[in-house]
Amino acid sequence: MDDSAKKTVGRIKKFVTPFFHLALQTEVLGFHHIQPSGKLILTCNHRSDMDPFVIGAIFPRFISWIAADYTMRIPLFKDLVEKTGCIPMAIDGNISMGSIKKVQQVFKKGDVLGIFPEGHDYMVKNDFDSPMANFHSGFAAFSLRNKVDVMPSVIVPIEENISDYPLPPILRAFMGMPKEVCEIQKRAVYKKVRVVFGEPIPHAEYLDMSLEEGMKALSARTKEAMESLMEKGRNEALWKLAS
Fold first, then answer.
1. CA angle 126, 157, 49 (to 5 degrees)
2. How many Å apart are CA 200 and CA 2, to the nearest integer?
3. Residue 126: how many CA atoms within 13 Å on its side-chain side?
4. What is the pTM of this model?
5. Of 99, 104, 149, 210, which residue is 20 to 30 A from 111 by alpha carbon distance?
């Protein structure tokens, strides 16, 4: 990833973050787990389109986020994706060689790759009281093939509004969004959240397995870790004790 993206993100964070935190109260736990340098995969749950901005505003390192390729067809957002170092990736699993090379560049530079293992499935389900959606295992493949540890994190909503999706379905369809995205009715707008970072999961523990077995095991362990972090963030007593 070229340095221009890092500079762009740095400028955006410097200008926008103070205003962002005026609108959203964020509490953080597990900040000490964040590695100051070195390649890393950061995973997070994905229940709102605010999620990458919530994490990006508090994470001290530059993150190259994996973004669904259809976001490149959204006016204005396309420019944001390109200028901030996001990596567009097909949601049907047919990952292009170009996307793979961009991911490898992130790791070669010792940077952080941000991934939402649920994809957009949670938001498509549109039930904001439900548990996390099933994980896609692509992040585990990136981890094992590139020998990169996985750092689990979660965003726990404490106060939020569930509002109508701002773009009508016909406009979303015109932009080329998938049918399931066009049918999303509601979105979560955070007012107060707790972000919990967990201890990185070593990739080396899964290298003796076949790739398929290792992906399955690493994906399951990551989901289990994130569910545990979610419970910690929701439990007021545990939160105060840990804080």
1. 50
2. 26
3. 12
4. 0.93
5. 210
How far lies 70's CA from each of 43, 67, 73, 100, 185, in Å?
A: 21, 8, 6, 17, 18
* CA-closest candidate to residue 44, choices 213, 191, 226, 236: 226
Tokens representing 202 are 């070593």
CA 189/CA 62 separation, integer angstroms: 24
Pairing of strands 40-44, 150-164: parallel
Cβ burial 125-164 (10 Å sphere, 16+ → b, else e)? eeeeeeebbebbbbbbbbbbbbebbbbbbbbbbbebeeee
Q: What would the DSSP string read from start to end of 79-142? A: HHHHHTT-EEE-TTS---HHHHHHHHHHHHTT-EEEE-TTTTHHHHHT-TTS-PPPPPTHHHHH
Strands 186-197 and 150-164 come out as antiparallel
SS3 230: helix
